[in-house]
């Protein structure tokens, strides 16, 4: 799922500063964190959250296929 999210972000924005990290929590939950510069966060989230919600839906489809739960967070690179 991390590879899919990285691919989507790379193709949409092409910014090498945007990275994705993953971490496992209890019960098989997966947390994917998008690290992006402040100038890109608004573009990733989109107007009213439409873009990030669409990305979450695509990743959710992959998670259902793998019988996992996934959460996506966006953080600013400091």
Question: Care to describe what's here?
Answer:
- This protein is α+β, with helices and mostly antiparallel strands.
- It has a domain at 1-42.
- Helices cover 46% and strands 28% of the residues.
- It has 3 helices and 3 strands; from the N terminus they run αββααβ.
- It has helices at 2-13, 38-45, 50-65; strands at residues 19-24, 29-36, 69-76.
- It has a 3-stranded mixed β-sheet with strand order 1-2-3.
- The protein is globular and about 35 Å long.
- 13% of the residues are buried.
- The mean pLDDT is 93.
Attribute tags:
78 residues; alpha+beta; three-stranded mixed beta sheet; 3 helices; 3 strands; 46% helix
Mean pLDDT: 93
Q: How many strands appear in the DSSP assignment?
A: 3
Widest beta sheet: strand line-up: 1-2-3
Structural class: alpha+beta
Q: What overall geometry do the principal axes of the alpha carbons give? A: globular
Encode the helix/strand succession as letters: HEEHHE
Strand content: 25-35%
Work out the radius of gyration: 12 Å
Contiguous uncertain segments of 5+ residues: none
C-alpha end-to-end distance: 25 Å
Helical residues, percent: 40-55%
Largest sheet: 3 strands, mixed
- In DSSP terms (H or I, runs of 4 or more residues), the helix count works out at 3
